[in-house]
Amino acid sequence: MHGTKHHLQKDFFLYNASKARSKTYINMREISERFRLPPSEYVIIPSTYEPHQEGEFILRVFSEKRSLSEEVENMIEAERPSKKKKGKRLSAKAREASEEEKQFRNIFRQIAGDDMEINAEELRNVLNNVVKKHKDLKTEGFELESCRSMIALMDTDGSGKINFDEFRHLWDKIKSWQKIFKRYDTDHSGTINSYEMRNAVKDAGFRLNNQLYDIITMRYADKNMNIDFDSFICCFVRLDAMFRAFHAFDKDGDGIIKLNVLEWLQLTMYA
Question: Could you point out which of 26, 67, 248, 268 has its C-alpha 20 to 30 Å from the C-alpha of 1?
Fold first, then answer.
């Protein structure tokens, strides 16, 4: 694990044996062990006795030699989309996408009407009609409140509705996130667990720290620590929008923004 700064995936533990562990794995308030290890880099992993049980803990490490320690995965960032170069000839896939674009625009026009904008209820109808065709998702569709949140996060002009370009951007994102959800919903239950959510977030191009993963679990998981498709998409829409908002305010790119109370409330209350 030399030099790693990110969350260790399940495969790491399948192919790397532990160098030391407590002799007995029991449910006790305090456990202490003494180990002799050669100089190297190590990861220390505390855990609760029962899976998915949260709890505060103190980890003390006493070393006879000089040692340095830091929390793994303390970087917070989102991958920026790269601009694609336009080709001269359309491939079969591109032509198919172009045809889909026409159908998509026609459907949008029928629902949006003359103003070519849709509100939360109309967005819900569109998304649920499309999602119904994907039987393997095992979802009851999107709640109205979820669609209100999506409208707020995608609405760039403050009209309370989204236009075709905003909707197209949202739909492209949902399609890519849907593939990620299906990849981790291996039992086709319509949910993924909190551990799989970490990997899904990473696959979507987001890098978060442990505190943020805990917040996501508290906000979007049910009592069994499972996240359904509706909550999964809402989480990703919010992550994407909040990163975009931050970068918009961070004009000098130093990773720090300054908001007055009006800007803060507009950003948080509408979203």
Answer: 26
